[in-house]
Amino acid sequence: MGRLLLVSLPATGAVIYRCKHCDTPLAYGTDIISKMFRCKNGKAYLFGKMVNVNVGEKDDRMMTTGMHTVCDIFCVACGSILGWKYLAAVEKAQRYKEGKFILDRGVVVAASPGGGAGAGAAHGMWPDHQQQTSGDDDGDDQDSDEESSDHQD
Ligand SMILES: [Zn+2]
C-alpha cells in the first residue's frame, strides 16, 4: 500500500454519496443506474461510476439473477466493505451490469448539495430497464441481486 490519494468529487449540484465511517466521497447520485438492488444487509444501488474504492479478489457468485463474476469493493480510506463490482455476467440480459458497482446503502450517507434542484442532465444516459417508477422505498427487489449460497444449477 502506498500513499493514500483520494479523488475528490467537485460539487455539481448532484447528491454525493460518502463513506459512512470516514466521509470519503464515493459517487454522484447522478451515476445511479438502479435503486432496485439488494445486498445481504438490505438496500443497495447500482452505480455506473465510483471513486476511492479498492477492489478485492475476483470471485464467482450465484446471484438471484444468475452467475456473475464479481469482486468486493472497499473504501480506500478506512477499508470498510462497500459492496461489489460486476466483472462479468453469464446471462446476456445481465451484462449491462459489467463494470458497474453495487453500493450497500447502509454503509454510505447521501450528502445533498443544499436543497439544489438535482441534476437532470443524466437522463437518458442509460438504457431504461426500470419498469417501476414507484416502490423506491419499500424494498421491492424485482431486478435485484442477492447473494445466495444454494446454487441449484
Ligand atoms: Zn471509509
TrEMBL record:
Residues 135-153 have a biased composition (Acidic residues). Keywords: Metal-binding, Zinc. Residues 15-112 form the Yippee domain. It comes from the Eukaryota. It holds the Pfam family Yippee-Mis18. InterPro entries: Yippee, Yippee/Mis18/Cereblon, Yippee_fam. Residues 117-153 are annotated as: Disordered. GO terms for molecular function: metal ion binding. Transmembrane segments: none annotated. Belongs to the yippee family. This is Protein yippee-like.
